[in-house]
Amino acid sequence: MKHTLEERIAKARELRAAGYNCAQCVLLSFDDVMPDGDTSMLARAASGFGSGIGASGEICGAISGSVMILGIVREGVTRPDLYREIREAMAEFEQLEGARLCRDLKGPGRKPCLELITDAVTMLHNRLAKSADM
Length: 134
What we know:
It is a single chain. The chain has 7 helices and no strands. The protein has helices spanning 5-17, 22-28, 40-45, 61-73, 79-97, 102-105, 113-130. Helix 2 (22-28) runs parallel beside helix 7 and helix 4 (61-73) runs parallel beside helix 7 (113-130). The longest helix has 19 residues, at 79-97.
């Protein structure tokens, strides 16, 4: 059974409260689209993407988690098509949030990470729903 947007957001919030990073929260809120349902390996693989990849302030972990999900659900799509969709998703996130880099997204007057996570989950959910991959 596929999760609703509300279920995904609730799961992402629970994961964040449990100490997971932004990439893990987005990735694991889409556990229902993973082929074998085993998310433990994916959670470990995404563990280094927090705070902009290893706390370097680079690309936001919410984007990284989204890219991982697109790679999973778009299996069999040509690389140029996958990369085009990833660029579109990143541009959509940047348009909404004003930046892609973690260091630019943090600070006074900026959204907290939990809001960035829920925005990324919402955008990704809607993107996948449009293409009927959910």
